[in-house]
Design brief:
Blueprint: E1 9-14, E2 17-22, E3 42-46, E4 54-60, E5 68-73, H1 79-93, E6 109-111, E7 114-119, E8 125-129, E9 141-148, E10 153-159, E11 167-174, E12 179-186, E13 191-195, E14 206-214, E15 217-227, E16 230-232, E17 248-251, E18 259-265, E19 288-294, E20 299-307, E21 315-324, E22 333-341, H2 347-350, E23 367-372, E24 382-389, E25 397-405, E26 409-420
Antiparallel strand pairs: 1-2, 3-7, 4-5, 4-8, 6-7, 9-10, 10-13, 11-12, 11-14, 14-15, 15-16, 16-26, 17-20, 18-19, 19-26, 20-25, 21-24, 21-26, 22-23, 22-25
Length: about 425
């Protein structure tokens, strides 16, 4: 496996499960247990900055469909008041289904912006939502897995946001989260090698999560599910800043408010009391999905996702699911999904105004087959695909959704996969 820098990792394999303990701030614990719950691991997290205003989500990472709790913050309010409400929400609802945790009994507390008494290790949780203050770091993005069947290695690459991290946590879950492992990395790490001779992961059902830590606060995660030569976004992780894990926002126009990304929720698929488990084996079982919403003013923009560290010369099949969530009114509004070799595409290239790396230009350049407003159905998701052979000087593919026009409307994008057609399944 890869190694962290400046930290000590301790691994053990028990009944086929790889366990990890990491020294340092990655596993900071409270000095006192919650009342009535002695001897259980518990985590403290201190938030220091003011709130930006929005939805603050705390989620665990122990299942593919993650339980979560959410509160609304007010722009400019202190960490002390916001985190006090978060602690109260956890106490009143027990969202993570902790055993022996009666609600309303002040098992989780707060003091001066410190959330205290959360059960388990700090690395079992992440923070997401549209709240971007309180010292919460932005998540990594563009997590990509390059599986080498002959070498029995999986090469991971991702990008960190500006500002970086103190440390990075990488988690492995396989066989539908029956087994798990992980590692701690230096805060500037953007790659990792999984040696399958050392970690007996099931490569036909392997989940990988990567998140950053700054001042002991865990970001949301970049994530990918691996099925041998296929990597796909098949998980239930809440979004950050309205963006699905791995994705980023782009806009051609100066006024970005005209095209806005949001998190859609399928309430019937979220983890709640009495409905804790959702294995998410198919795209339509995902509880969260990407919405791109246009205001009356409109504009041109959308979201994009990079696959990096791929193999030059290999042929990849890109698949994506899209649906119209409202009526698209002809020339006033249009939507399409595209994929092209290259990862440093400009907004003008994604808008079809400048030539793409292969020389193609125009509104239909590198569009997935039939992935546009002429074919998508309102409320019903369709699957669209195309094959891309990487040039010898390219190791990346960018996929983007483009929404253009004036007038209120919205589209949904709920799944993407990348299959390496040049690698045979074992």
């Amino acid at each position: 496996m890869g190694t962290g820098k400046g930290k000590k990792e301790v691994f053990a394999v028990i009944a086929g499960v790889v366990l990890l303990w990491t020294t340092g701030s990655l596993a900071r614990h409270c000095s006192d247990a919650p009342p009535g719950m002695p001897g259980q691991a518990r985590c403290c997290t201190t938030f220091t900055e003011k709130a930006s205003g929005g939805t603050l989500i705390m989620s665990d990472t122990l299942n593919r469909n993650t339980p979560y709790v959410a509160i609304e913050t007010v722009a400019g309010e202190s960490a002390e008041t916001a985190i006090a409400r978060l602690a109260e929400a956890i106490d009143n609802t027990n969202p993570f289904d902790w055993f022996g945790f009666p609600t309303g009994k002040k098992r989780v507390t707060s003091s001066g912006g410190e959330l205290r008494g959360v059960l388990g290790g700090c690395g079992d949780y992440l923070f997401a939502g549209t709240e971007t203050g309180l010292g919460i770091p932005r998540p990594p993005h563009s997590l990509t897995a390059n599986y080498d069947l002959q070498l029995k290695k999986i090469a991971l690459k991702w990008n960190n946001p500006p500002g970086g991290y103190d440390e990075i946590i990488i988690k492995f879950r396989w066989s539908n989260y029956d087994h798990m492992g992980g590692d701690g990395l230096a805060g500037d790490a953007e790659s990792y090698i999984i040696d399958l001779d050392k970690m007996p992961a099931n490569t036909s059902d392997l989940d990988i999560l990567v998140n950053g830590v700054r001042n002991d606060i865990y970001s949301s995660a970049a994530a990918i599910h691996i099925n041998n030569n296929i990597q796909e976004e098949l998980y239930g992780i809440p979004f950050s800043s309205g963006l699905a894990p791995n994705w980023q926002r782009w806009s051609l126009d100066a006024n970005e408010a005209g095209i806005k990304p949001q998190m859609g929720i399928r309430d019937e698929l979220t983890t709640v009391k009495g409905r804790r488990y959702n294995s998410i084996t198919m795209a339509d079982k995902k509880p969260f999905y990407q919405i791109i919403e246009s205001s009356v003013q409109g504009g041109t923009g959308g979201v994009y996702r990079k696959f990096i560290g791929l193999t030059p010369g290999h042929t990849y099949r890109v698949k994506a699911r899209m649906a119209a969530l409202s009526e698209l009114k002809g020339k006033k509004q249009s939507v399409s999904v595209h994929a092209s070799a290259g990862c440093a595409l400009s907004p003008r290239q994604m808008a079809g105004l400048d030539a793409l790396p292969g020389g193609k230009k125009g509104s239909d350049a590198c569009k997935l087959k039939n992935a546009d407003s002429k074919t998508i159905t309102k409320g019903k998701y369709g699957e669209y695909s195309d094959d891309i052979t990487l040039p010898q000087d390219s190791n990346s593919i960018t996929v983007w959704l483009r929404y253009t026009g004036k007038g209120a409307g919205s589209v949904g994008l709920d799944w993407i996969s990348l299959e390496d057609l040049s690698v045979k399944k074992p």
